[in-house]
Structure to design on (355 residues):
């Protein structure tokens, strides 16, 4: 019986790695005009030469202004819940059954999110960050005293970091509730894929800072068939420590369910997760731009503005009903280069709907 169990655990670990590294690609053709954003909080630069056969993302964009650094909800240890969605229609993508113990499937108790423990360590000159993600696989019975986990390490280039503290009504609000961060970095497995992360700082609770992290993978080549990958990942996280542990939790075994639950806190360890909350709006197309809503008060809009301009906007609506928007625009210039621009603003969804 122990041998069979070991085979099962080894199999689902291998399949987990396949599931997380084998996305499907959807391509989109040129579309029409999107409602133009306000021209504030702007950062622009050049990504790469699209005529090159070897696209190099090592030179993504110039460094963000030094004043923006240190304001981001980055660094330290986090515990959270990660869920996957289809960016095409916002539908929830369940955890594959091979990652779930048969007993949970039998009783209809399969989880909708995977528990993750994230450790981020920023180097001294703030040019890069090492992120170690420990994904805890679901389990039952005595196995919860020694949970199986998958660990992955990503070195993220912070030269492309963009962040701001958005002002509302002329006043800078509480940092944890208003900080927005944009990260752009190449995926290690495929240099032709670019991951864009949008991180929204949330209101503090139980003395801890929270954030919503939206990760979307893009294939910006060839430019005329700009691709957005499926699935995209939403991760709701609780900061457990401002100092990174280096991802050592779980080393040598002994990571138990009680520890994970304690790190998640009451808000994230309950039976109901953010995935159970309905989206705040319906999906729709406006001027041929696709708008898709998700649980967690998150929405995205993407498509072609012109034959040469592709845009991705990621939004989050806070408790005050205001929507924070981060807009990335990719432009194919006349010399074959792909330029990049990022902006942010705050808007009232009700006022936007009336215009």
């Amino acid at each position: 019986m122990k041998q069979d169990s070991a085979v099962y655990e080894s199999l689902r670990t291998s399949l987990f790695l396949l599931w997380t590294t084998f996305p499907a690609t959807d391509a989109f053709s040129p579309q029409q005009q999107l409602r133009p954003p306000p021209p504030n909080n702007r950062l622009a630069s050049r990504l790469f030469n699209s005529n090159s056969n070897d696209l190099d993302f090592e030179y993504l964009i110039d460094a963000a202004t030094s004043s923006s650094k240190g304001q981001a909800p980055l660094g330290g240890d986090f515990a959270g819940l990660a869920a996957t969605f289809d960016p095409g229609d916002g539908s929830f993508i369940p955890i594959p059954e091979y990652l779930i113990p048969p007993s949970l499937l039998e009783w209809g108790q399969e989880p909708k999110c995977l528990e993750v423990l994230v450790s981020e360590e920023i180097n001294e000159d703030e040019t890069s960050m090492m992120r170690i993600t420990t994904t805890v696989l679901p389990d039952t019975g005595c196995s919860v005293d020694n949970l199986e986990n998958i660990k992955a390490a990503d070195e993220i280039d912070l030269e492309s970091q963009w962040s701001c503290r958005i002002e509302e009504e002329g006043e800078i609000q509480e940092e944890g509730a208003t900080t927005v961060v944009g990260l752009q970095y190449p995926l290690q497995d495929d240099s032709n894929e670019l991951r864009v992360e949008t991180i929204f700082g949330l209101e503090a609770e139980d003395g801890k800072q929270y954030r919503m992290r939206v990760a979307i993978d893009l294939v910006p080549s060839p430019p005329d068939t700009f691709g957005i990958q499926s699935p995209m990942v939403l991760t709701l996280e609780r900061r457990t420590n401002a100092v990174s542990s280096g991802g050592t939790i779980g080393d040598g075994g002994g990571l138990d369910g009680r520890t994970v639950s304690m790190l998640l806190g009451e808000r994230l360890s309950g039976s109901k997760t953010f995935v159970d909350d309905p989206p705040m709006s319906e999906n729709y197309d406006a001027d041929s731009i696709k708008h898709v809503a998700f649980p967690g008060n998150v929405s995205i809009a993407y498509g072609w503005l012109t034959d040469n301009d592709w845009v991705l906007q990621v939004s989050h609506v806070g408790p005050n009903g205001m929507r924070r928007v981060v807009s990335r625009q990719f432009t194919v210039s006349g010399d074959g280069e792909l330029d990049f621009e990022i902006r942010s603003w705050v808007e009232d969804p009700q006022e936007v709907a009336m215009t």
Notes: Residues 28-354 form one domain. The first strand starts at residue 24 and ends at 27.
